[in-house]
Fold this sequence. Notes:
This protein is mainly α. It has helices at 6-42, 50-70, 74-92, 99-111, 119-136, 142-157, 163-181, 187-202, 206-224, 229-244, 248-266, 271-284, 287-299, 303-306. Helix 2 (50-70) runs antiparallel to helix 3.
Amino acid sequence: MLRMRGQDAVFLDSFHLFLNSMVRFREAEHSLNRASKVCEERLKVPGLNSLEQTDLETRVAIAQGKLYLADKNPSKAAGFMEKAEDLIKENHGEDSVQLIPVYQDLGRIEQSKGDDTDHDRAVEYFLQAHSISGVSYESGSVEIGRTAYALAMAYSASNIAEGEASAETYLEECLGIYQVTYGPHHPETLRVQDERSRLLVRMGKQEEALEALRFNLRPKMETFGEYSEEVAESHQLSGTIRLTQGKMEPALKSLKKAHMIQSNLFGAGHKKAKATQQLIDMITKTPSVAAKQTSTDSKKPHFSAIVGRNTQLGGFKAALF
């Protein structure tokens, strides 16, 4: 029997994974359709608690909506989520907190339409969720922070005029809540800080982004570790910003730190490490950096004269950027 070629094997593995996922989807779809029929049959039972029945119908509709969203079928997903929305409004009111995840899922469904996405509509869903959160929870609560973050991401992904400015406003609202509730070193706080830094870069506020990265770096080191992926991302973004500013030497310094961590974590052949190495190579080939590197190398003493065998090597903490 001839050995199967590598590409054929990869194709068959991918095809089997696809078939397995389709089987799981069909099984889930069948189970939820049965659950929906059970809900309909229960309506014939005398003395049934109507609120419990409606809540069951709502949960099934939400599950169906999420299933079709995962299957990239926004039309069906929206239909079930809108059914859940109507049921919740009818039985719990138009300001029910149960509507918050439903509105957010409707926003995600709209965002999943690709080129056909109506960004105004998507943002409106997230805005409705945040509005309900604001009137339902105590000021400064984590729940308000979460809906503010989701709304900020919706604005950030949109092509709406002033969308980035609105995204910044809601990110700062979320960040303020998280810093008080969780503290500056909590992973959720640091995640929001990172999103804010990336947004500032998109808005052309490079210096403000660099300041945010500097502020965020030490908490990242203490939370995730000095040689973590999260710290590497900070160095990577810092280097990229400085590269766009034409500041080659600081860019090179930050990118080398990022590359060292990425290589240690993933290996030098990993796509992240390779992408960073390409930037480093590009910078080192620029005339100003290449000339300085040659001059420095010619004046530099031999490594063994500077660092003996028993000399302790320092980390990043002496110079974060």
